[in-house]
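Subject: Sanity check before I submit

Could someone independently write out the structure tokens for this chain? I want to compare against mine line by line before I put it in a report. The sequence has 735 residues.
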Amino acid sequence: MASFPTLESRGDRRDRRVADRRGLALVATLLVLAVMGVLVTAAVRAALSSARTAGLEYHEARVFYAAEAGVEAALAQLKIALQDGLLEDEELVDVGPPELEGFSYDSFSVRKLGQSVVETITDGPFAGLYALTQNVEIHSQAEDRAGTVSGVVLEAKAQAIPIFQFGVFFEEDLEATNGPPLEFVGRVHSNGNIYLSSRNAWYRDMVTTPNRVFHNRKDHNLVYDGVYINDAEGNEVLLDFDSRTIPGAEAFKAESCEKFDCRLQTDAFEVDSLRLPLPAGVPAYDLITPRTEADGDAQREVKFAWNADMYVTVDLTDTRRKSDICGGAPSKQPDEVVGNVDIAGLQPVEPGRNVTFNIGGNCGGGDQYDVTVIADGVTIYTAHLGTACTFNLTIPSDAVVLEIVVTDNVGSMSGSAFWYGLQSLGTGEPTPWPNIQVERPAGQEVPGKAEMCAIFQWKWSAFYDGREEELKDVLTIDIGELGAWVGGSETRRAEIIYVEFIVPQNVLGYSQELLDLIPDATLDPAVRVTRGAGLPNRLTVASEWPLYVLGNYNSVGKWPASLAGDGITILSTDWLDSNNRPRDDEVFEPCEGSVSYQNPCPRYESWAEGWGYRRAEETTVNAAILAGHWPTPCDHAEAACPGGYDDFYGGGIENFPRFLEEWTYASGAKVVFHYLGALVSPFTSRKTTGTWNGTYYVPPQRDWSFDTDFRDPAKLPPGTPNVGNVIRTAMREAF
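---
Independent answer below. Compare away.
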């Protein structure tokens, strides 16, 4: 009997398939778990490694930022060091890293790379100006407490931008319409329009403006064809076109480049307005104003008053006896004796007094005396006394220093005796003076009372200014007396003298005694420098009031120098106050008791109407000038402008340094005024506001040049306003 296979039921087969699938799932699950385990392990290991790396990078980053902070601190200190325009080696040594908790700077240095150079700034707010550039390298290496070290090396340009870098710079319209010849060497720039009309003017360097050039006057229509601008090869080329005759930009450029090698540039060339190198927010007039506690850091950085190492205050609200200000009374004995001489006055030695002088105590003893008397450098008396031992003379009323030279031809008594500061001596007469105070930084010597009044001499109604039509009340700074007092002493040396006047609102509070000294019934303070042909050292004199220069200034052994004021007036070497002031018996004495607030003495007014200028003599001034000017109010070509000439024309660049004399010889030849410096007018005058009218002077022949020494940072005048600008050029990590 045949056998047959056993057939599985449908349910058994289903159960077996399910069991197989469960086994596969288990295997798959185990495999997934294994893979996940590997992945998790790897992730944990990666996370731990990343955490360790992140921790390391965190420390490295912090140390790198600390090193970078060192560089930033050095840059800030460099800017402060550049305020005087000169980056000294000692200043670099003083540059240090910041103090950051948890970090130290074991390696930190700032050093110069090469010598300082003059570079033209090509971009930024000072584009177009030149900078005295010193390349520097800053190395800053920081370390944290964990020993992590990082370093940065930064290369930068330390730029000092001085204001005295133009031959001429005007913030507003510049007018040059000279009569006598004017030759100017140096760049001329105005941020306003430029007006050129003259029969004889030569400009040896570039003339630039972001506005327009007009071959005409501003005050009225008058074109003179005598303006020349040098081309690049130094050829004198006549100016015969302007922005009106050639209004198109491309045509103007073509003509300028054809004639002057593009050395006359206007808005056609897209010239930028040159921002004065002053910190942002500081108005230009602040440069010359007194210091105040309200001044911010920017003002303190650039104002002459804050940078002064001799600050003089003249308080016209506090008047006293002259002897109270200057101390003491006239002396019979000399202030100084050089050599072996015994001499004294039998009366007090003072200006205007007749004094008998006695030599030695052996009168008639056989000695043979020769005597020379010198007042302020001028010999006023000589005598051979023989065996006599006395002589008599009247001391000049304006004498400041008296020297008596005695030579004994028989014996051994020979030498010189000096009486100083004669104008400062109290005479016992009721002469009010303003209170004068001198302040100096710690460690600097302050002049004594008598010395102070010899250097700073006060005079009510000292002289008449024909342009301002005022009798000026003057503080004269005697540079000769200053030099004698300094005498080479570093503790006496003064480089920036600032004069502040404290002025009452009016003269209502003044006594009649004082009013009699000002017959014009007004206060008109001014500063004047005199006997300044040879300066004792680098010197800047500044005030917010009018500033006058009497005689040659800085013409012997030239030093870096500048003069800053509301307006600058030149008084020639032939100027005498006595020729420009009413005589006592003519005005002052008859006017006693008649002067009051707003009521000048009629005798004075009559004298002023008849005042006339006197002849000048050749004079030299070598100093940068920063001052205000008085502008012509509008262009005659404008419909609303009245135009005109007398009392309308501002005076132009030719009268920026003002004049009050006849600068013509009797022969008709012109007297020359020699000027070497920089003429900068960043503001309109606020106190020197008399208009030009041509009746108070006859102009000089002007020989003017830019002082190229100002391109050397070591030869800039003290206190020259600068902006310190530091530009990064390259940075790398130090390993």
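---
OP: Matches mine. For the report I'm noting this point. The chain has a mean pLDDT of 87.
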